[in-house]
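Please predict the structure of the following assembly.
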Amino acid sequence: MRRLLLILGNDVRRHLKAPWAIVIFIAIPLLMTGLIGVIFAPRSHSGQLPPIAVLLVDQDKGLASKLILGSFDVDQMKKMFQVTVTDEVDGARRMKRGRASAMVVIPKGFTLDLLEARPTTLRVVKNPSEQFLPDVVEEFMATMGVMLSGAIQAFSEEVKGLRLMLDGPVERIPWETLGPEFGKAQKKIAAAAKYLNPLLIGLKEEETKAAGAKAQSSMTDIFSIILPGMAVMFLLFIVQTLMRDLLSDREDGKLRRMLTTPVRPLEVIGARILGGWVMGVAILLIMVAFGTLVFHVNWGPFGFFLLLVVVAAFWTAAFFALFHALVRNRNQAGALGAPIILAFSLFGGSMMNPEVMPKAFRAVGIVTPNRWFIDGAALVREGRFPLASLIVLLVSGLVLLALAVPTLRRRALV
Amino acid sequence: MRRIQRILHVAGNDLRLMVGDKVFFFWTLAFPILFIFLFGLLYKAGDNAPAVAEMTVVNLDQGRWGSYFIKKIEAPGIAVTVTDKEPAEYVRMIILPADFSAQIEARRGQALAFKKRSGASTSAAARVETRLYQAIARTISELVLYGPGDLTKFLDGHPAFRELVVVKGEFPPKTVTVVPSGFDHVIPGTTIQFIMMMVLIYGGIGVMEDRKKGILGRLLFSPLSTGELFQAKLLGRWGLGLLQALMLFTVGKIFFRLNLGSVPLALLVIAVFSLAMAALSVFIGSLCTKEDVIVGLSVLLANIFAALGGCWWPNEIVPQAVRVVARISPAYWAMDALHKLTFFQGKFADIALPVGVLAALAAVLTAVAGRSFRIRD
């Protein structure tokens, strides 16, 4: 045991002397988590999207177009849309350069058409390089169209009067008959106000997960969701790099020289696997510490999470012990190692949320350590004990170890 | 002429060695295609978006207004499923409470619970939500039109709602004619990301190993000068980027009906971008002495540049401040140019700025890489 610990201590010191690769691999998940968190973190205003650039071409310059312009001027809409009023030539030029998400064109005669209850069309020219924001503008305008249609029909009598006032000279307006008409309009406005404040039918939105309901995530939640996936992905990369000694010692003849001393093969193999495990735990704990200090990540009960970290690092060390026992040389290890890690990460949910993956891909994810670590971390975050993850990682880790040790021993003696 | 031949010979040999690597095609073709497939499905848009957005309505209403309101929600792009109890599985769901009719008839305001599954299609959710707001607006308009009468008799006869304002969505003239698919967005991004990653990793490690093993030193016994050797290394890595782009664009064209706009201009963008990455790879290879450090640094740079440059997600959803910072990423300029070609059928004048920036970056990086290029450690 003493000899095993001596080899382990020597390995750790050796790796600490040239730490740049490990430092970079630890930095990558932290930087990526920070970047993804900043981009996808919920914003305090108007949901998830940044302000949408909209160009508004008013060819009508009438009452109805002013109403549409005014609708963009409401506080909530100002946060959602950045409106620039322009003419069609300039608008088309800007759209061609992709300077706005959409251009709304209010046609000439729009107000008159509405006053005469004639169908009319609003054009929404959409930026083809954008996937979501132009549709938001189109849907907003469609809702606006419904409201305008409704308002025109509800106040059709009053609108006719308005039409008369707009068209004819002042002397032709029958002022004496307008009194009762204003009275009727007042009643309708009062009735409408009753339906609008508070809204007769409103929506109370909530985003839910598969089983129960959950409110919108905070920025800390986003970091807490992303970091475990990133951490386990780069844990695999780092442990693979650290445990490459199992191969290089054999290839360089160091192992043969070591075995001329009283050291037994099992002690060398044990030291390497224990080293991968211990350093794996240390690396995950460094990421946990950074995550806590910089991103205020919520890991849940720390004891549970530590247990998950220890078991995940054990699985990783056991897996790469078997991997390095099976591959022939460093080139083969380099060629196969990274693709395996990336496949684990892609299917296991380190690169994208498994919920949005095709079913077949999700099924493959079950055989990856990433999936069990991410699921376990999610349970711990909710304060629950990650029993299934621990059992799966521990049992499969022990199986890998049981396969790895005799194979490594056999190859060490060859 | 012979000088050019010598440079081409060494560059071609470098390219042959890189292509001959066992996992070259996994990294340059198989893995990017897996990425394209998964992310193309994830960011489905346009013709790949769900043709019909699902909507479950739990109708607990004791009166007649519930059914009337459901009819208002129904539309060609929305599949409405009506049920009388809350299901365990749903994508999005609205609950009409037992007193839904009673509240309307009493002209009292109410808020309906509208639940959305996280991770479901954003555009489908927006379609349903808008339809709900439109249904509410239509219902309220009819009520205003109906006046102060008894609302219990409303459904026996009332004035019908007419769509006076129609909204027509279209793309700018001389741009795209069909709605771009998710793959049109994902393939250029994945190509740019993997060119960065592969050119930096393969290129950087190649330069470092050639130097450490003394291959660069031995090559100088040939008529090659140090400058020519540097040019050959640069050219080999540039060829790698071009080759990868050609493979991915061809696969994209055949299997995903990728629309690149002008193919020669798209290749020009890739050529200038690859040159910048080739220079960066020679610089990294000259600077670093360990393979793991080169891999780590390349993965770090490629991922950060890709994320900032809009290779992973549409730049439109990124906060303004990040969009400004993104300009430091070469991927941002390459993606900007490819977007102009793909979605706006851009001409050379439209991509002159991003290509100019990339060319300037390539020139600076080539100068820096040239200065740091070493024959021996």
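Chain A is about 70% helix and 10% strand. Confidence is low (pLDDT under 50) at residues 212-216 of chain A.
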